[in-house]
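PROTEIN DESIGN WORKSHEET
SECTION A - STRUCTURE
LENGTH: 104
C-ALPHA CELLS:
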C-alpha cells in the first residue's frame, strides 16, 4: 500500500522514503523556516505539536505541494527536530552521570 501511494504521488523517492522530492526553491525553505521560528514563539502545546504541522502544511500547500505529502513532510520534520534534541539530551545525561559516579 505504501509503495503504491508513493509511486502514484511521486512525492517520495523510490530509493529512500525520507528523501522528499518537493519542487520548491530555497526562498520557500527560508519562508518555512521563518514561519516555524515565529510560529513557535507563542507555545500553544507542549513541543509545539500541531503548530509545526499546521504551519508546514499551510506553507507547502500554498506553493502547490499536495496536502497529504505536506502533512507527511511536517511529521517527519518534527520527528527529526524533536528526536535530535531527545537523543542529545539522553547522551548528555549519560555523560554527566558517568562523570559524577564515585571512583571506587
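SECTION B - SEQUENCE
RESIDUE ASSIGNMENT:
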Amino acid at each position: 500500500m505504501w509503495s503504491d501511494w508513493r509511486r502514484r504521488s511521486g512525492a517520495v523517492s523510490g530509493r529512500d522514503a525520507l528523501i522528499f522530492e518537493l519542487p520548491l526553491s530555497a526562498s520557500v525553505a527560508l519562508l518555512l523556516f521563518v514561519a516555524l521560528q515565529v510560529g513557535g514563539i507563542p507555545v500553544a502545546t507542549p513541543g509545539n505539536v500541531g503548530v509545526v504541522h499546521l504551519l508546514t502544511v499551510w506553507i507547502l500547500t500554498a506553493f502547490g505541494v499536495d496536502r497529504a505529502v505536506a502533512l507527511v513532510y511536517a511529521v517527519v520534520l518534527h520527528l527529526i527536530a524533536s528526536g535530535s534534541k531527545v537523543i542529545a539530551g539522553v547522551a548528555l545525561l549519560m555523560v554527566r552521570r558517568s562523570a559524577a559516579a564515585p571512583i571506587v
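SECTION C - NOTES
The chain has four helices and no strands.
Residues 2-100 form one domain.
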